Inverse folding.
């Protein structure tokens, strides 16, 4: 609708819109049809539901397929017309092809709903920024497996471990490339001899 969450809350208090459903976590869920004129309904129907899946490495391709199946079953069960986008890459890599397309589509107003299996499947760091963009563009975010919210300390420890994991992988990966290049040169020298 192009308004802030505070405006929706004010409209609810003033009785301008019906009271929304509430999730177990206390989040409001509005039915678009109850929020205003038919133009909002038709606009919501024109916008896509995008389901996004991501894994970090080629070793996890089976997990990527499982994520896609879960997203497909969930969206189909809701009766939504949807498209699945997927990436294979680090949660700290912001240059993934499908992620870039997703962000472009959100900014251009082509996405009405974003479905994820878990919050960290979008990005390890920065998901909140993408969620803020979604909120400003009127995109509903659906997390299938929200689980219990971690405490501040648990979240901080997870972030530190993720940073260490990513930098370790990059360090070992660069060493691996150097070692492969060195082995290739040695094999070339052995063939020459």
């Amino acid at each position: 609708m192009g308004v802030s969450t505070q405006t929706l809350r004010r409209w609810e208090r003033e009785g301008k819109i019906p009271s929304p459903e509430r999730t177990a976590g206390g989040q409001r869920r509005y039915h678009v049809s109850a929020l205003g004129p038919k133009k909002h309904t038709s606009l919501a129907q024109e916008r896509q539901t995008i389901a996004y899946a991501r894994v970090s490495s080629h070793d996890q391709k089976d997990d990527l397929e499982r994520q896609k199946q879960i997203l497909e079953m969930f969206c189909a069960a809701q009766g939504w017309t949807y498209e699945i986008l997927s990436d294979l890459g680090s949660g700290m890599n912001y240059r993934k092809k499908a992620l870039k397309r997703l962000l472009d589509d959100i900014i251009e107003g082509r996405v009405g709903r974003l479905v994820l299996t878990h919050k960290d499947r979008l990005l390890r760091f920065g998901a909140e920024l993408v969620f803020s963009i979604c909120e400003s563009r009127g995109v509903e975010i659906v997390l299938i497996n929200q689980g219990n919210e971690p405490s501040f300390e648990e979240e901080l420890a997870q972030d530190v471990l993720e940073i260490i994991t990513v930098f370790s992988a990059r360090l070992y990966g660069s060493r691996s490339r150097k070692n492969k290049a060195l082995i290739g040169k040695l094999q070339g020298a052995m063939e020459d001899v």
About this structure: The beta strands are 21-22, 28-29, 48-55, 82-88, 111-116, 140-143.
